Amino acid sequence: MRLPAARGPITAELFARLGGSPDRIGPLPDCPPGAVLDDDLQLALFACYELHYQGFDGVDDRWEWEPSLLRARAVLESRFEDALAQAVPRPQPVAPEHVRRALTALTVADEGPPMAQFLQRTAELEQFREFAVHRSIYQLKEGDPHTWAIPRLQGGPKAALVEIQADEYGGGRRERMHSELFRTTLRGLGLDDSYGAYLGRVPGITLAISNAMSLFGLHRRLRGALVGHLAALEMTSSLPNRRYAAGLRRLGGDDAAARFYDEHVQADAVHEQVAANDLCGGFAAAFPSLVNDILYGAACALTLERLWAEQVMDRWQCGASSLLEPDLADLVAGQ
Q1: Pfam families under this entry (predicted)?
Q2: Other C-beta atoms lying within 10 Å of the C-beta of residue 313
Q3: 67: number of Cβ within 10 Å
């Protein structure tokens, strides 16, 4: 994966520096309000975080721990955290023993746009392709952001997270890794299955979904938000994935292409219980002062998903593409 084109003054300055040898980098340009949706800030933050994952071709790996870049990233993170705080009100505090009930209330109350129903019943093939392009940003690294929490947990919560993540990584079998299953889905849709292939095509809100996971995962102080975020994903996964599978088959996808979604229907029904009870319940009992962080992380996951779906659905309802470069012809691999 190479650095994509810059989207504003922040990424223009950042990418210009990352193309050279690691050296002191000064403050980056400021960003306007509304950082949750800001393309420039979200791409810059994503690029900073990606240095801790697979990195970029042509970018020196030593940038990962360059102190001046970490200071610049901290400013971007602060803007993002402030924007999240404005977009996601903190849930009401609850006692540790009630955290499962509170998580259930959050996920049941969140209705969001009918994205899954639309993809199941109405979407055209080009729209399902766009959906997969958006999802590829996270799902080709699925599991990795939440795995940062493993060394930060102990006892039962740690064991619970390892149980969930073991399934994400296919129980040690490459062909069963969820990221590999999604690559098969991309190929079945005629799309490029290489890591980060569509980074330059997706808007800021798509990047914000991944950035929130990395923000929570890379900061120990936010480990409560990270486990709550994971629980919200697991608790709202099974039914939508059943609908995605049905929609893909309706559009001519075969069982191999739909297997990623089929797998989540089964696995996440189990993960829901492990995440809510053993992971979050155990963590809340061990760290009562962080219970509200668990619920906040869950609320962030639900809110960002809703904002993303609203933006994508609004574009589709106007007859437009949800991607930054709308020509779908060159999305198809080999064209």
Answers
A1: Haem_oxygenas_2
A2: 17
A3: 10
Our CA dihedral for 210, 192, 129, 204, rounded to 10 degrees, sits at: 30
The whole-model pTM stands at 0.94
- Torsion (CA) 262, 168, 209, 205 in degrees, nearest 10: -50
Burial class (CB in 10 A: 0-12, 13-18, 19+), 170: middle
112 pLDDT band (50/70/90 cuts)?
Answer: low
Q: How far apart are CA 222 and CA 216, in angstroms?
A: 5
Instruction: Please name the amino acid found at residue 177.
Output: M
- Contact criterion met (CB below 8 Å) for 165 and 230: no
What separation in angstroms does the CA of 39 have from each of 130, 204, 227, 301, 307?
18, 4, 27, 19, 14
Instruction: Measure the CA–CA gap between 126 and 105, rounded to whole angstroms.
Output: 35
Residue 326 pLDDT > 70, yes or no?
Answer: no
CA 211 from chain centre, in angstroms, equals 7
Which domains, from first to last, does the chain contain?
9-87 (no CATH), 96-331 (1.20.910.10)
- DSSP 8-state code for residue 220: G
What is the rounded CA–CA span in Å between residue 119 and residue 272? 23
- pLDDT at position 334, please? 44
Q: Would you state the structure tokens that stand for residue 32, as one six-digit string?
A: 């306007």
The span from the CA of 145 to the CA of 267, in Å, is: 19
